[in-house]
Amino acid sequence: MSYELLSTCSAIASKLATKYDEFAVMIYEVNNVMSKIINNQIALNLSRNLYVIDLYLVRRKRIFTIELSTSDLSQVIKLSDDISNYVGLIKESELYSPLPEVKPVKPLSDILDRNVENYLNDPRQICELLINSAINEGVDRVAGTLSLSIITKALVGSNGFEGLERGSEVTAYLRVFKDDSSGQWAYGGRSADLRSLEEVGRKAAHYALLGRKSASITPGRYDVILSPLVVGNLFELVAMMASAFYVLSGFSIFMDVKQGDKVASELVTLIDSPRDIELPGSTAFDDEGVETYDKEVISNGTLKTLLHNSKTASKLGAISTGNAGWIVPRAWNIVIGTGDSGEDEMIKEVKNGLLISNNWYTRFQNYVEGTFSTVSRDAALLIRNGEVVGNVGRVRIADSLRRLLNNVRLISREYYSIKWWEVTVPTKAPYMLVSDINITRPFE
Amino acid sequence: MSEDLLNYVVDYALSIGAKYAEARYQIDEYFTLILRNGELISVNKSVSEGVGIRILHSNVLTFAATNKLSRDELINTVKTAVGRARALSHLVKTPISFSEEKLGRGSYEVKVAKDFNSLSVDEKLDILSDLHRSTTTSVKEVSLPVTYCEYVEHVQRKMIVNSDGGYVIGNVPRLSIMFNLVMSSKQKGSLQRLMQWGASGGLELIDLWRPVQSVEDEVRRLEKVLLYGVEPPKEPVDVVVGSEVVGLMVHESAGHPMEADRILGREAAQAGESFIKPEHVGKFKVGNEFATVVEDPTIPGSFGYYEYDDECVKARARYLYKNGVVCEPLHNRQTAKIFNTRSNGASRSMDYSSEPIIRMSNTYLKPGGMSFEELIEDIRLGVYIKSYMEWNIDDIRWNQRYVGLESYLIVNGELGQPIRNPVLELTTAGFYNGISGVDKNLAFYPGTCGKGDPSQGVPVWFGGPNVRLSNIRLGVTV
After folding, report:
1. How far is B228 from chain A (nearest CA, A)?
2. What is the CATH number of domain A3-206?
3. Across A86-180, where does the E strand assignment appear?
4. Domains of chain B
5. Which residue, among B26, B30, B35, B43, would best test binding to A if mutated, counting the most A CBs under 10 Å from its CB?
6. Which of A71-80, A416-425, B336-345 has the lowest mean pLDDT?
């Protein structure tokens, strides 16, 4: 592994020790290739090979952070010197808490798929597989992205922590078109799992083909099946709102909620799962050197915990959940608890409703109350008496996130590992049937 | 970083068979203060410095970025990128070429009246803490559970060299402040407002913005909206949309659909495509005579300011829609070639590690000659939507929604009672054909526009006058 990276962290740390009471140095080395597929062909190939150096610095309880995307180590020292001049001019941070005591961390194994290293220099086979997986299903046009990465992370802290991890990441998503209909699917994982990658094209094509016949719908309340892409998008926002920092800052539906309160249907379980090595957000230690662990954020509808670093934990009388972020705690991987239904069984359950296969542009009128809307894209299928009857096109879910969480009625057994443009935290997401959801579209 | 080294990289790429090569050194420096309830949480500095290299080789357009800046590392980056391009070349069916352009050779810089160092960090913090204090002292009957503030100084420097003779150096400092508040009433629930200021320039902008006074005034008005706001009328009415909302509407429904890469399907899997097709240019009628939308990177002091784009094409103003007709898409050299035209300088990158793609800069609806009072004087019953929180638009930029925050009834030509959460949900044609008047009060608002994968956020302004729309049915939130 890149012990050199750890040595660089230590070398920077030794220079910080004279100026700061506490510090942490984290370096990421990223080797990434991204191939962009447009109109059935490769339109661009991106390669990135870079260092990102992050510093956490504390002096007299004043907190400073530095982020550098540079390989010039003299800049790191210069900036840390510059920023120390502010110590006498500012007050101590209201979130200050000392870096936590170091405890043993069980490392994660098998987070590097060596095949990804090979595909980095020749992504042709996967690109062909992705394009053909959709074209072979009979679609006209394929667009999408394949991203392959090897990421090394090193962390050294003044609390004595030293950690090093090297892992792979594969993200692929396709949007495919047949006539005026489209479908989309995505995969995010640690490994170049060709079966899952092939499934991306097949699932996207399935919805594009299913949506060819158009149908109409009037605005109103409907039972709605959310695909794993939609579940991933919405539950990523729920997980963000479970970050104690966002609760403290007024960007959360959990601002007025206590641990143990019911916040969702009892079918809903949301797990932050940093120990799930199939998902690329997995990590053994957080940014403060705290060992990560899997935890239920929502368990059968009840809020079990917020996501904490040592600072938010101290402020709110909790203990760190291993989710630092030096300032903002965040989820590593999200796993949504599965149920005992299936996509087809859910469709049969719906008398008058929709299956929304994909969405984007989720925005809030009020984060605290959770009022939001999001727009469907790709197939939005009208279901009448248990049968798909057509594609209603672009409609909007405009409701309250609290209501949506409470109205979950069925969850599928099957789940998919999703990561794409609108689901940025790796997520294992099932299908969900949600009752009585407000659907809108323009009045004219 | 020396110009010679960038030239060396470009020459090396050509020497191993590239048809085109460009090397862009870019450094972005940020200084950020984060406060909660007027109290400092943290001070952040960030520097992103490296070289982005774009090469057309083996019919594959390839972009590579590195922050390892030695000559050897840069050459290795070129070799790796070309190797990967060769591997994928048989998956390319349509050869890529660029429009012929007379590329710029020069430099530009935004001059500041007050350097970022002209105030000490504690003086800056005093101003930001005042934002919180002024909100709490300005309200009488509601509580403010939390305010959150981010203050950002950003200096962006670029040096770009390409194999077609382009050579540009740019230096743009920018300042922005974001302030979020939650206002709460036991009887009426809560509302949330996110205010932003942003422009290119230095600390003189704070004198111009007067953010503390601005927040005080607005919070007083929002208190009335929360306490006394009523539902909007159910029947169709005239709706006057304020500059802040109009700016966002033209950004979303004129700027984005007029990005030529989106029209050609290049963003299909991410930000989507466009209701506009290549054959619509100069012909398709999207609105009435009021529907004139301008995109102009050269507005002095603007958040989206630049003089040359990242392909070294001279920036200029463009009409996206002119008197209701689709006019000129935003182009880079690749899309310009396909459209058989010239680039209009819309190629931008967020940072060194991002490929240059077609971006907006400053987008606005052309103002008219009326005063605001004249705009509303003959409205018997209507609604004025001054600000918003929630918005979105579909992936072809046709079906859009904006939820008003500070909004009022208009009764017999005058502003009346506040309204809560009116929903303006309409089509792009519905908006641009529904305009029945525009006033002369052009105002701009800052934003960070997202596009591409890896996602790139770039600073933009969007703006417009106050706009009257006729016969609109408003919705309400749940």
Report:
1. 18
2. 3.30.2290.10
3. 141-157, 162-178
4. 3-228 (3.30.2290.10), 237-476 (no CATH)
5. B43
6. A71-80
